[in-house]
Amino acid sequence: MPKANPTMPVIPAKPADFQLPAPGRFALVIIDMQRDFLEPGGFGESLGNNVHRLRPIVPVLQRLLVAFRMRGFPVIHTIEGHHPDLTDCPPAKLRRGKDGSRIGDPGPMGRILILGEPGNGIIPELAPVPGELVLTKPGKGAFCRTDLESMLRVQAITHLLVGGVTTEVCVQTTLREANDRGFECLLIEDATESYFPEFKQSTMDMVRAQGGIVAATAHSSDILRSIGVTEPSAGPPSTANPAARPVNATAAQAPSSLHARLAFPLGLAISRNLFPLHP
Ligand code: C5J
């Protein structure tokens, strides 16, 4: 049972309310909100999915991002992608998909699921700003062959509020990895989506069953209210926002003074973990 912290808010959640730790000890984690998953011609569509199903969570994540930035709370973005030579892509993953639209094949947004390609970047609406961690990962889970755990430990971050896509794949895998490493996890119900509504529902049910065996779940409005940000003032950023540019894994970012206090030391992390079994 996590310790109560009378100075910090408690977020109404299922199966039990979620006690926030001190500011700086919890982070918003946005999983894989990339063009590859949300736009036609990317990895998601190459696997036969209707990518438009994921769109409704974009304004929800925008509101959360605005709120976390206003409060100066840490934000982490992840990107699923592989190096151009595919040495970090296990053969089993590479084989999936159809001839001509597999990982590394050319598509309308560049090579599919390859770091640095236009289609691999985070959608402009959720573009990271300087000081936010952008973590590239070769797997579904954000802890697999990345430095995420040590980065969190260095920052003494203990609680993760997680959204993004897709609920039952990269989001759920990351939650389970985080839970096994002792992080307290909250899945944001309306900030995550799947190509399959029934899989999203099953994931919600699975993670919060048995007393929250993997995570608790909460609605974004309860999170915003708990951190003292009312929804209307936390609207999406205007398109004039200079931060609203697509960001991909090759875009270097320098921490700004605004975010320097809670900025991750590396700002942008690119994991280069060769897959030893690749031919
Ligand atoms: C998938 C992800 N679905 N981000 N990736 O392959 O969930």
> Number of DSSP strands?
11
CATH superfamily: Isochorismatase-like
CATH second-level architecture: 3-Layer(aba) Sandwich
Contiguous runs where pLDDT drops below 50 for at least 5 residues: 237-279
Q: Secondary-structure element sequence?
A: EEEHHHEHEEEHEHEHEHHE
**Class in CATH?**
Alpha Beta
Q: Into which percent range does the helicity of residues fall?
A: 25-40%
Shape: globular
List the strand order in the largest sheet: 10-9-8-3-4-7-11
Mind explaining what this structure looks like?
The protein has 279 residues and is α/β, with parallel strands linked by helices. The chain has one domain (10-253): Isochorismatase-like (Rossmann fold, 3-Layer(aba) Sandwich), CATH 3.40.50.850. Helix content is 27%, strand content 17%. It has a seven-stranded parallel sheet, sandwiched between helices. Strand 1 and strand 2 form a beta hairpin. It is globular. It binds dicarbonimidic diamide (C5J). Dicarbonimidic diamide is lined by residues 32, 37, 80, 140, 165-166, 169-170.
Short description:
The protein is built from 9 helices and 11 strands.
Key descriptive features of the protein:
seven-stranded parallel sheet, 279 residues, disordered C terminus, globular, binds dicarbonimidic diamide, alpha/beta, 11 strands, Rossmann fold, 27% helix, two-stranded antiparallel sheet
Give the helices and strands, then pairings.
Layout: E1 10-11, E2 18-19, E3 26-31, H1 35-38, H2 43-46, H3 58-71, E4 75-80, H4 91-95, E5 106-107, E6 110-111, E7 133-137, H5 148-155, E8 159-165, H6 167-180, E9 184-193, H7 197-212, E10 216-218, H8 220-226, H9 257-260, E11 268-269
This protein binds dicarbonimidic diamide (C5J).
Dicarbonimidic diamide binds next to α6.
